[in-house]
């Protein structure tokens, strides 16, 4: 497991941290800045964005599996997700 620290949470630092997190360059990306609260705000937004992105990717995968004729139970097993999550995604499609 690797850890990357980005010093400076301005536009460049926040963008670098975002790209590294999205590309999973390290198991942990830390963002620090001299201005109090700045890095925490960016980190919070980044975490939320990654969570939403992960959910969107799961929705896309479920939709593809439905189009191929798989049942919810099969999809849950293939994607190693709980059946309730898959059923909720299917209901929203």
Task: Give structural notes.
The relative contact order is 0.12. Strand 1, helix 1 and strand 2 form a beta-alpha-beta unit. It contains four helices and two strands. Helix 1 packs parallel to helix 2 and helix 3 packs across helix 4. It has 93 residues and is mainly alpha-helical. Strands 1-2 form a two-stranded parallel ribbon. The protein is 65% helix and 11% strand.
Q: What are the main properties of this structure?
A:
single chain, 93 residues, mainly alpha, two-stranded parallel sheet
Topology:
Elements: E1 3-7, H1 11-22, E2 28-32, H2 38-67, H3 72-79, H4 83-92
Parallel strand pairs: 1-2
Short account of what is shown:
With 93 residues, the chain is mainly alpha-helical. The chain contains 4 helices and 2 strands.
In N-to-C order, the SSE pattern is: EHEHHH
Compute the average pLDDT: 87
Please tally the β strands and state the result.
Answer: 2
Gap from first CA to last CA: 36 Å
Give the neighbour order of strands across the main sheet.
1-2
- Rg, Å, rounded: 17 Å
Based on secondary structure, the structural category is mainly alpha
Oligomeric state of the chains in view: single chain
Per DSSP, the total helix count is 4
